[in-house]
Amino acid sequence: MTAADAYSHLESRFRRIAVLEECATVLHWDAAVMMPASAAEPRGDQLAELRVVLHELLTDPALGELLSAAEEAPPEDPWAAANLREMRRDHLHAAAAPVDLVAAHSRACSACEARWRTAKGEDDFAAVRPHLEEVVRLSREIGAVKGEALGLDPYDALMDQYEPDARADDVVPVLEAYAAFLPDFLAAVLEKQGRAPAPAAPQGPFPADGQRALVRDLLARVGFPFERGRLDESAHPFSTGYPGDNRITIMVKEDDPSMAVMASLHECGHALYEAQLPSAWARQPVGRARGMAMHESQSLIVEMQACRSPEFIAWLAPRMSAALGPDPAFEPANLKRLYNQVTPSLIRVEADEVTYPAHVILRTRLERALMAGDLAVDDLPGAWRDELSALLGVRPDTDREGVLQDIHWFDGAFGYFPTYTLGAMTAAQLMAAAQEARPEIPARLAEGDFTPLLDWLAGAVHSQASRYPTQEVIRRATGRPLDPTAFQAHLKRRYLETE
Amino acid sequence: MTAADAYSHLESRFRRIAVLEECATVLHWDAAVMMPASAAEPRGDQLAELRVVLHELLTDPALGELLSAAEEAPPEDPWAAANLREMRRDHLHAAAAPVDLVAAHSRACSACEARWRTAKGEDDFAAVRPHLEEVVRLSREIGAVKGEALGLDPYDALMDQYEPDARADDVVPVLEAYAAFLPDFLAAVLEKQGRAPAPAAPQGPFPADGQRALVRDLLARVGFPFERGRLDESAHPFSTGYPGDNRITIMVKEDDPSMAVMASLHECGHALYEAQLPSAWARQPVGRARGMAMHESQSLIVEMQACRSPEFIAWLAPRMSAALGPDPAFEPANLKRLYNQVTPSLIRVEADEVTYPAHVILRTRLERALMAGDLAVDDLPGAWRDELSALLGVRPDTDREGVLQDIHWFDGAFGYFPTYTLGAMTAAQLMAAAQEARPEIPARLAEGDFTPLLDWLAGAVHSQASRYPTQEVIRRATGRPLDPTAFQAHLKRRYLETE
Q1: How many C-beta atoms surround the C-beta of residue A436 within 10 A?
Q2: Chain B window 236-255: which residues touch A at a Cβ cutoff of 8 Å?
Q3: Are A230 and B23 in contact (CB < 8 Å)?
Q4: Three-point CA angle B411, B415, B421, nearest 5°
Q5: Among all residues of chain B, which has the CA nearest to that of A229?
Q6: What is the ipTM of this complex?
Q7: What is the pLDDT of residues B223-271, one digit of tens each?
Q8: CATH entry 1.10.1370.30 includes domain B162-499
Q9: What CATH number has the domain spanning A3-162?
Q10: Which CATH code is given to the segment(s) B3-161?
């Protein structure tokens, strides 16, 4: 078989894998949005069985042979060559862990996550501790075998699952530099903020239907493809889909429309990335979005960079009044302060963009120690309190507001948290480059027009899919690889230099 | 390997198959209820890929060897023995048709069904004719190879896919006996009906939310498991699900609440059958519902036998007034006439229970001729008009109201139509036996109480799953195999003897 034939067979096999992944996507969406709780167990079985089928397809020795044959003479077309590189990556990751270990890890995560849901409600870390210990043990094993296969440190092998090529040697200094930057900067922000009146909060209730209509209007303006997608509601907002079908969810709280408005814009950023991936490479590894950090950058460039900018908030404020009824909180000056309020707090998902990285730094420090065996699960709640207190000067009284707040570890996701802050930093750097290339962006946002920003993103990021490694995408888009000073410059401008 | 070991391996393999079938169920539901139209093509790919995986699992030669090994000494437990019988059945059907033929048929059906949707709207049979010819050609091939493998006539092999053990030698005489019974009976019904005033139709609009609330109340009363299921809306009402998750859909028309009310009760009958299958045999072939005729009998015993009975309608009438507002149509005497009105008409899905079998007889005659090669697709529209005219004295002016009205053939379902009327006849026979065993059923229906009827059905039908062949289920429940005179007796009682 020629290398070209082998590559062509690989495209067929990976297409099949992608199509079956899409089946899992639909089942996940349904589980979060539609499914009765009684079906949690059968749905778990369904997803696990699909995982087994996918694992078998990806680890088929014949696929490994095809890869070796194709690599003898890689395709000349640069997209096809990149596709072959991504195929090898997928195969390496899947084949690195024995199927029994993958299955044991998957079962432990399901059991742990289910126990976590009740333990969080009851603020009972001890109840979920043995489950988490098992998940940590199996995650360390996976890190070890994947690290062995990929020639990486175990934690790097875990991170590489979410953000290809991310390495602690690069990521940790970036995060720790922020930890060093934060204390003085935060003090300055709080000092400046304290000189203005505290922003008024909206006085609800704001009927859910009015919020939904407002969200639909805003999403249509940003460009959410309603004719090729859905907007629904779920306990946690998320974005998912496959070509031809982009779905996002929001949570509507009658007492506070900010949740629905800002979360929908955030998820819309994710959805637009997916919707604008190159259709010619759909269902091939190279056609996928480029890692979780880049994905988060696309949600944050829409939400944090564009929609919380003074220009857009000035446009948004009267529309909130019109849709939800007048409220002093919707006065432009107040809304700007409200949507850029900085408050050290206990809960990551409620954090502002200045303190959010501190929550990520805390988690990254602790999960690296867990994976290295330097921290016992038993000591986790106390370590959490101490770290948060040191980073932000606040200390949770309960584990519900501490170590139990996030699902990620209880669902086996170690190495994921850093992508949130890498995404925020990437978003700031991309926005600076976008505005340099298209100086009209702020003025157009002031008219509620996202076209120049999204055109630029489509060209620089969305249409690139996984053709290049993350750092190369950033370099091509901005002239240099990830440079955390762009994020600091953005924060200084928004929180210290803007009135 | 011992026979017992082989059987145990088979249970694992068939469990896996059932779980992946559940994935397809969720994808089908989503396609009908939630999915944007833009995703029709990728969803078709997703379902086709799942079909390929399932076909590979079912036709795996190792599975054939396990079956042979297990059959050397079948399990003593009668459920397990029946399970082995059903496993063999599934394997025979799957292995009979070569995978290329199955794939070609599946592709032809997808293309034909898509073309049919527009052709129906445009009343353009010629546009879909070449597609239907291809579907007929491939369906005949499937009938031939399955007939060969199963030792059956090709049409019987096709029917056997939907209703195990159904044979034209048994089914056709039953249907043709009804064709002989119908003319005089229909004349008598129409004559009697003509002596009373025509029933008043409800004068809408009836707001959709009021209809939805009424439907929810009715379904709760019949016993629909809302806590383990969903009620949604779709272009055509249907019922689907898997253990722990029963979903039905309705269509709400503001001008006529009958559609939502009666279709929901019909689908609820299907759902209760699924919900009360024995959990001990879930995800095994023997644990499934016993064929499409029995399934239809469960929807019709709820809708036609129970809910259109004079006793239940007397209970229902004031509740419709209360939920939807007073309307002369909701007067009990009028509602009884309205819900038992007999009108020879063009459209099967709108037909009353007296003329419905004529629509089925028409389709059975024509599809047998198509499968035998005695009728060309080109001659189908004319043959349709002539047959309907002979059976019911009405003649469609358009193909939209004729051969284009149903999706079934265009989606490759030949051998399915007879199950509708077999189901109606089974329902009548089961209801007679139920009332003999539980004489309080009519009086309880007059109180809106389905308990005795559903208790009896749970014992006689639902809990039996696929342990026995259909005719044996009917014999055990009613003392004799299917006897079409029970249906005729029911019709005479309801339409000639009831005031």
Answers
A1: 12
A2: 242-245
A3: no
A4: 110
A5: B36
A6: 0.94
A7: 999 999 999 999 889 999 999 999 999 999 999 999 899 999 999 999 9
A8: yes
A9: 1.20.58
A10: 1.20.58
